[in-house]
Structures are given as C-alpha cells and as structure tokens.
Task: structure prediction
Amino acid sequence: MIRVFQEKYGAVLESYRKMGPRLVQSGLTKIRNSFQLIDEFLSLTVENYTYHLLEEVDRIENTGIRDQLFEKVRDIILIEENYRKSKGYLSILEPRSSKNELFLYRHGLIKKYCFKILHLEISPKNIEKTWHHLFYALAAGIAMAFATLVGFLAQKYFPNFSFSLLLAFVIIYMFKDRLKDIFRDLFQKWLNKRFYDRTIEILDPSYNKRLGQCKEKFYYTSFWDLDPKIQELRRLDTLPGLEVEDRGETIFCYKRRITLFSAPVFKLHSRISGLNDILRFNVKHMLTKMDEPFHEIPFIRPDTLRISRLQVPKIYHLNVVFRFSVEGDEETVLYERLRLVLNQKGIQRVERISPGGKIQKMIS
Result:
C-alpha cells in the first residue's frame, strides 16, 4: 500500500515539477508565482495525507516490520519538508518558533488560492428589482387604462378619440412611470457617493452650544476603486507570491467628515488647543466565525525523528488603512496602515506597517 501511495503521489509531483524550469524562466512573474504556490500546496497536501498514514502505522503493534514501515513513511515527510526548505517556501514548522503562527495562516491562503478555480464565483445582483419594475409597469398600465377608459366612454363627444390612441397613451404612461423609477435608482446611487448616511451634531454639554457636526457613511468597494496610495500601502508586507488582488478580500470603507466651528469652540474653551476624535471599531461579530485559536499539527521531531504534535496558533489578519485629509488642503494628506492580528479570543496584537514595509508592534 505504501509503495502504491509513493508511486501515485510521486507521478503527480514529478509531472508537475517538470514544468517548473520553463515556467520560472518565462519571465512572467504571475505565472512563476502561481507555479510556486501550487507546488507548495501540493507538497503540503502530500505531507498532510502522509501524516495520517504515519499515525496509523504508529498504532501498529511494536515489531520490526512496524519500524521499517514507519521509517519509509517518515522519509516521505522529511523529503517534502527538505524540498520546501530548498525552494525557500515559508510553510515550515519549527518547535518553539514565533513564526509558526504564519504556517496555518499561509496554508489557508494558499489553499484558498488553489481551490479558487474549483469554486463558482458569486456576483451579487438585485434581480428582484427587474421584476419590481415589470410589475410596477403593469400596475401603472392598469391605472392608466382605468383613467383613459373614462375618456373612451366619452368618445361620442370626441370623434377623433380611438382605441389606438388609448393604447398609445397606456404604453407611453408605462414607459414614463418606469423611466421615473429607473432614474430615481440611478440618482440614488449618485447621491450615496456624495452624501452621508447620518449626521451627528457635536454639542457642548455645559453650554448646550453647537460646536460642529460629524457625518458618516459606510459602503463596500473593490480594490481597484481605492486611492492608489492606499493600494500601495496594502501591498506592503504581503506574503510572497500572494498578491492582494488574488485573495478576493472583502473591502469596506468607512468615511467620516468632521466640521468644527472654530469661533464657538475658542470662545467657550480658550485653553483648548485641539480635540481628540476617538474611533471605536467592534470586531466581536467577526470572532464568532473564526476557528479554534490553536490547532494541533503533526510534525517530525528533529532530535528523535518520531512523530509529535505541535500547538500552532490559528490567526486572522484585519488590515486597516487610514487616510486623513483637510478640506481645501490637498497637500496635507496623511496615510497610516495598521494590522490587527485576531483569533477566536479577540485581538492578539496590533502592528503598524510603515511605508518601507517595516513592522512595529503597538499592542501585544
């Protein structure tokens, strides 16, 4: 059985890796990255199934045959692990290493990338609106027919009135009514981009004076609709080969516009030189969909060459890019990128990603 397993997976890996030199030397970065990601995923997949086989062998009664089988299966794992090391792939487990948390994170991203071709894409569209417009047009036609029938009954007073004219009026009214709602929807989208969801008045509780206002809105967007500077910051410190555009990330934009009335502020608070705006972002609803904070991953101990299990953290990244600007001053625009490292228990740490790609831990 072990020999058959070696032949099967060996044939798959050999046929795929034969294409490597041509693809890597093609000069096309995207093709080279795709080949390397799939190659790494195939190696991890073989290793994963081999670990299952190794655990079954380890349960066999302690005999000389078991030790021989164990060594054969173990060597498959060691070969794949050494192969990934030789290729510079990052999916390597090391005892007591802080880099182990990236093992599951990277494995998950690579798996999603490789399985993407097997999944159907989802493109949300509000098909119901089409039916709404159709039935609204029908209702408008009925209303128009009722109204014009009154005139039809009075045709003896209007000799030029005919059924053809009635039908024309009905159709015209139906199109007129639908055009009204279609343009209403178009204007609604246009208004959503330029107007805010809600407005909050900023008041001084001591004097009950209006000091300013805060406008907020929230919407989903795509990576290509973002500010180019935000795109650049998001691309920093990404895992090699895994471009942001290929991950299918969900991007939402929260926009806040604060207007302060300087005259009443300085009149009522002469000693104040500035105000702090505190933004609270609740991630609690995201935690319920996350996996357990630790996974047990089998690995071969380098000192004993026996199978063991390692507690590996399961983490998620939430990237936040801030854009601060002052209205009327296009030159004073500040950008900052933070990365929240989360697991099922909450925020584990917050990292600041500088423009040069340097990571600075802020909260741990």
Observations:
- The CA atoms of residues 287 and 344 lie 5 Å apart.
- The first strand starts at residue 198 and ends at 204.
